[in-house]
Amino acid sequence: MKIFGKYIFYLLIIEIIILAAGFLVVSNLNVNLLLSEITVLSIVFALLTLLILAIAFRGMNKDPDSKTLHIMVALGLKFLIELVFAFLWFFVGKKTGLSSVLLFFVLYLAFTLFSILAIVKTLNYKSL
After folding, report:
1. How far apart (Å, rounded) are the C-alpha atoms in residues 19 and 22?
2. Nearest to 57 by CA among 127, 125, 5, 97
3. What does the CA dihedral 14, 20, 24, 25 come to, rounded to 10 degrees?
4. Model pTM score
5. pLDDT tens per residue, range 84-123
C-alpha cells in the first residue's frame, strides 16, 4: 500500500504541473484553448489513472496469475473508458478544433505513460 500512496502523490504532482502549465499557456500565448477544457481533461485523465492504478495495485500482493489478470483488466478498462470518453469529447461535446484534439492526445499520452511506467516498475523481474 505504501507504493500505491507514492504513485498517488506523483499523480497529484503531475496534475498540478499540468494545470499550472495550462494556465501559463492560456494566459501568455494566443491559443484557441480554454482553461476549463484543460482542467476537465486533466482531471478526468487523472481520475481514470487513479482507478487503473488502484485495480493494478490491488492484485500486486496476490499470486502471479492474479497479478497478471489485474493488470490486464486495468489496461483493458483504461482503453475502453478512454474510448468512450474520446467519443463523448469529440462527437457529443463537438471539440474538434486542432487545439482541442492536440490537447486531448497530449494528455492521453502523458497519463498513459505514467500509468504504464508505474505498473511496469512494480513488476518483479525474475532471471532465467
Report:
1. 5
2. 5
3. 40
4. 0.88
5. 999 998 888 888 888 888 889 999 999 999 999 988 888 7
